[in-house]
TrEMBL record:
Annotated protein name in UniProt: M23 family metallopeptidase
SUPFAM superfamilies, A to Z: Duplicated hybrid motif (SSF51261)
LysM domain ranges (all copies): 2-46
Organism: Synechocystis salina LEGE 00031
Pfam families in the cross-refs: LysM, Peptidase_M23
Signal peptide limits: none
């Protein structure tokens, strides 16, 4: 939060515009503005992006808030100062009820699974518990079991925006599907597409491998669905977008 000292002639709307925010964000963060008035010399707090504070129900966890607002629990945890038991939380990117509704999004899900169905999940999306004494970790996709060199297909039509070796992902292909959605295909053995290529659903883009640092030993494709949010490309459960097997 950045402090801002109100100058003569400034309004809630003008300050919000200065910081590329909506006025409702400022009012939510600064309860003293709830009357709609502002006074020169008053100090208010400016958040880095739009959002609002919410009261956290007793006993609720960051995972509960993530499920309620569609954001990753670890992102909410970090944004709110890594507090273990929140009583009040800042939730970025909430749609404001008194503003015009966005255009209808006709997204109906991905066209197909990225490997031949039926696909067995070796490691699911979400928080994963490890052995005794080890910390849980967040798995941002699904690991689909498949033999090495199994063809990997585009789950929907789009544009290939990355074909590269990327740390723990190993050989990685990223496809942009428009409307703020991407799919990621990791641990490939080799590529079958290049950057900038437009691909239809079902196009072979690479082959199952073991590059990078896979989370499980059996050969598999690590597959992610990411949606653009105010805090970056947030991972969503791919099973929500994939057709039933």
């Amino acid at each position: 939060m950045t402090p801002h000292v109100v100058k003569a002639g400034e309004t809630i709307d003008s300050i919000a515009q200065k910081y590329q925010l909506v006025a409702e964000t400022l009012i939510s963060v600064n309860s003293q503005l709830s009357s709609g008035s502002i006074t020169p010399g008053q100090t208010i707090l400016i958040p880095p992006f739009n959002g609002r504070f919410v009261t956290v129900p007793a006993g609720a966890t960051w995972r509960d808030l993530a499920a309620a607002y569609g954001l990753r629990a670890d992102i909410l945890f970090e944004i709110n100062g890594c507090t273990e038991k929140p009583g009040r939380a800042f939730i970025p990117g909430i749609s404001w009820g008194n503003r015009p509704s966005p255009a209808v999004d006709n997204y109906t899900g991905l066209a197909q699974w990225p490997i031949q169905s039926p696909a067995q999940i070796g490691l699911d999306y979400g928080w994963q518990n490890q052995g005794a004494g080890e910390d849980a970790f967040f798995h941002s996709g699904v690991d689909l079991l498949a033999p090495l060199d199994t063809p990997v297909m585009a789950a929907a039509a789009g544009e290939v925006i990355l074909v590269s070796q990327e740390g723990a992902y190993g050989f990685l292909v990223v496809i942009d599907h428009g409307n703020g959605r991407q799919t990621r295909y990791a641990h490939l053995s080799r590529f079958a597409v290049g950057p900038g290529e437009k691909v239809p659903a079902g196009k072979v883009i690479g082959y199952v491998g073991s590059t990078g640092r896979p989370d499980i030993a059996p050969s598999h494709l690590h597959f992610e669905v990411r949606v653009q949010s105010p805090v970056g490309w947030a991972a969503q459960d791919p099973k929500l977008h994939l057709p039933r097997q």
